[in-house]
Write a structure and sequence with these properties.
Domain HPt: 38-130
Largest sheet: none
Structural class: mainly alpha
Number of strands: 0
Region (Disordered): 1-23
Oligomer: single chain
Protein name: Hpt domain-containing protein
Number of helices: 11
Strand content: under 5%
Radius of gyration: 18 Å
CATH topology of the largest domain: Four Helix Bundle (Hemerythrin (Met), subunit A)
CATH architecture of the largest domain: Up-down Bundle
Helix content: 55-70%
CATH class of the largest domain: Mainly Alpha
Keywords: Phosphoprotein, Two-component regulatory system
Order of helices and strands: HHHHHHHHHHH
Modified residues (Phosphohistidine): 77
């Protein structure tokens, strides 16, 4: 049992259950809107979030317990981006609050981590209520349909980076498919190592990190 007191509310934080729907841990309507109405892509994103971010809070706690604040900060930032993509507003705000505290030298992060743990637990509980086969089958069906319906596309090396940067800046889920479809063009521009790093960030739905990578390569204004 955690006896830590709830941290003070952050400016603009309407409480742990602020969001598009009162009391909603995931604003599904907002998430679909963020992904430009692509419900199948949302199913894919939710399935991957459930699989990849289940241990996120434990990893942050382990990093803090081990004195590795930079790692904890990076993990909190990545979780914030992933939570934002699925419109898990209370979790995103909890991750943002923790990130801000970690950047403030000397502040106690553990009350904020406790808040994040509770928010993540609620999101996972909601996702676990949907059978894994439903999300995974929707994802597999969508990918198969894309492969069957669309011939191999050719991408202009000069344009693909600008297009990807725009999608990332808008939080558009089409960025996920573009990174896969335009692998050759992106590798030509970023190099093999740069593309692998980009793909890893996209797989983690860290759109902010991916956009920052493009900016480092001079590919985004």
């Amino acid at each position: 049992m955690n006896d830590l007191a709830e941290p003070p509310a952050q400016p603009g934080d309407g409480g742990e259950h602020a969001g598009g729907d009162a009391g909603a841990d995931i604003d599904h309507a907002g998430a679909i809107a963020r992904l430009m109405g692509d419900g199948a892509l949302l199913a894919r994103v939710l399935a991957r979030f459930r699989n990849e971010y289940r241990p996120a809070a434990a990893r942050i706690r382990a990093a803090l317990d081990g004195g590795d604040v930079p790692l904890a900060l990076r993990l909190a930032h990545t979780l914030k981006g992933a939570a934002g993509l699925i419109e898990a507003v209370p979790l995103r705000r909890a991750a943002q609050a923790l990130e801000q505290v970690l950047r403030a030298d000397g502040a106690d992060p553990y009350p904020h981590l406790a808040r994040l743990e509770r928010a993540l637990e609620r999101v996972l509980r909601e996702l676990d209520a949907v059978p894994a086969t439903v999300l995974e089958t929707q994802d597999a069906a969508r990918q198969a349909a894309v492969r069957m319906a669309a011939p191999a596309r050719q991408f202009d090396d000069r344009d693909v980076l600008a297009r990807l940067a725009g999608l990332l800046d808008d939080g558009n889920g089409d960025a996920v498919d573009l990174v896969c479809d335009a692998a050759a063009a992106l590798t030509a521009q970023l190099g093999e190592h740069g593309y692998r790093e980009l793909a890893s960030l996209i797989d983690a739905f860290d759109f902010d990190g991916a956009l920052a990578l493009l900016k480092r390569h001079g590919a985004a204004g």
